[in-house]
Design a protein that fits this description.
With about 280 residues, the chain is an alpha+beta fold. The chain has 2 domains: about 110 residues; about 160 residues, Thrombin, subunit H (Beta Barrel), CATH 2.40.10. The protein has 2 helices and 12 strands. Strands 1-2-5-4-3-12 form a 6-stranded antiparallel barrel. The protein has a 6-stranded antiparallel beta barrel with strand order 6-7-8-11-10-9. A hairpin with a 2-residue loop joins strand 3 and strand 4. It is elongated, with a radius of gyration of 42 Å. The two termini are about 65 Å apart.
Length: about 280
Amino acid sequence: MILPSRKTENVVLFGLIAICAVFLSLPTARWVQAIKSFGFYCLSYGPFLGARTFEQMDGIPENVRQLLRAREENEELRAKLREGKWLQQQLQALRLENERLREIFQLRGSLRWSWILARVQGREASEWFRSFLVDRGERDGVSVNDVVLGEWEGRVGLVGRVVEVAPRVSKVLLITDALSAAAAHLSRNKEQGLVEGKDLERLSFNYLSETADIRPADEVVTSGISQVFPPFIPIGSVRRVLPPDPDLRYRSAVLTPIVPPSRLREVLILRHIAPGDDAVR
């Protein structure tokens, strides 16, 4: 916006004075006197309005600057608020990660374990529920029969074990594979059984005693009888208890895995630390 300068104000003022002089030089007839009175009224109020307008226009730049400063301060506050929310989310994520690791390391019992974080690198459609590759290998300290865990919806559970190791990649046999099996028990009452894969996203819990107290939603965990899997690792929850088979002397149930292997993007490989080996990866 271009504001009137002081020179412009002076020109307007001299112009008004000249008009007044013209009115004063006119004859003193009644109609002339009426025009003079009306003109003096308008001209006397005109400079007042002009001065007020100039004063208001002079204040516009300062008002604009104040509005701009207020807008900048508002944007800074909004940015700090967004940053605060982001930091709060990061802290929450770190807290959850810490709780997950604590839960994992509570599975150690009397054994010592280190852990290696690995990402799922690839899987074949024909082996979707059987195995996948991870981006960690022998150079990272991975060995055959290392236990593989995963996390889903805030819970940590058994995924499988390492069956093949190359320098930079490893193959994980999933717990859902038909060749997989793990000694397990019900966490509620320690009823023993064997969890076996079915090549699907579900598991079988077999060889329970005929009088076993097993119910839907019961949690099944590793029993520690196996030399491969540490005790108390969550495997799955009872989805359905199968009716007794008169030809079998045991009961069975269908489990839903705690961690669905087909949806994982990263896993945790547990590595047993032998006595005298203090390396933690």
